[in-house]
Amino acid sequence: MISVRTPANEWTAIEEDRVKTSWLGRLTMRWWGRLLIAAIGWTGLALMFSLPNLMTGGFDKEFKMYCAQFWAWGMVTPLIIAFDRRLPFSGKQLGMRVLAHLAASPILTLIGFYIMKALRVSLGTDPPSSLFPNQVFSIMAVGWQLWFWLIYWIVAGAIQAYRYYERYMNTELRLERLEHSFSEARLNALRMQLDPHFLFNALNTISSHVERDPKLTRRMIEHLGDLLRMSLESKDRQEVPLTEEIAFLEHYLEIQKIRFGDALRVVMDVAPEVKYAAVPSMFIQPLVENAIRHGISRRAAGGTIVVRAKPLGERLEIRVQDDGVGLPLGWKLEQQEGLGLSITRQRIAGLHPNGTSRFAVRNRMEGGTEVEVSLPLRLVGDEKSERAYA
Hints:
The chain is α+β, with helices and mostly antiparallel strands. 63% of the residues lie in helices and 12% in strands.
């Protein structure tokens, strides 16, 4: 059976899931459990108010009188809650709710007062004659009824405060869900832009070799098939283990090595302890592609691509370096980045917002270009499981 939670009841559902995990929560899920907790709570209040008479005498009578008073309110409070829930006004119509309670308060106050008198008679602190109408509506009883009326408004006010809190939390949760959905949609849109961009460039590379060397072209198509399969497998995941990202990159590099031959040299330097670190899917390949297209391919002698990944404290540092022609004078990342570089930078910022990630492109002192990506180090997959059971 599939359970569907809407934004309106999501907060209530989350609260129910939370309380069910504790023994107190399980107790409150049963009517007798709630009754027991309420009885203990109201009796505890009666005991607290009776304690000043413990040393002066008369404690027994005072305790019974306070028990009658608080037990009466324990019986009336559910009536107030039930009345408030059945009001045909929304949470924003506070004025109408106040008027409704103003009309109902004298009746429920009188009910509560009469229950208190009946409990006092049953506990032996008041004579049975105190239940007669002339006693219930006497001048002496007016003071008690005003006190009960005041408590009624304290209870009603607490109910409205809880309703406001519940509505506020529902609103906050709804906004959080909308923000999360928007973020997911934006990341998926960026990923959808990246897939055809990558495919077009790979097909363009292969097409240039179709007539010149059909055998090499078939090898390129095989690697492209592996790339498409891996891309489809990870299309529903924004993050993958670094080892998967490196495997995807290696297939791409095989295509480029067939194209460039010995003119393209690749060095992979990935620390073993970060091979299962969580990284954005398909984010290194655009960086390497950018280095090949704008750095290595423009040199007759070719060049070297170095991909490094290592831990640095609680962070994962990834660098893609080349010894190509370097960045042109006055080049700025925000103004002159290509589509692949732009999408990659935006995806990293979307997955790790609020300055938790770093993306930088700069010239190397030795010549060429370096792209540096810094992410929070978080392990996923097999390595995480191994550490959990170590």
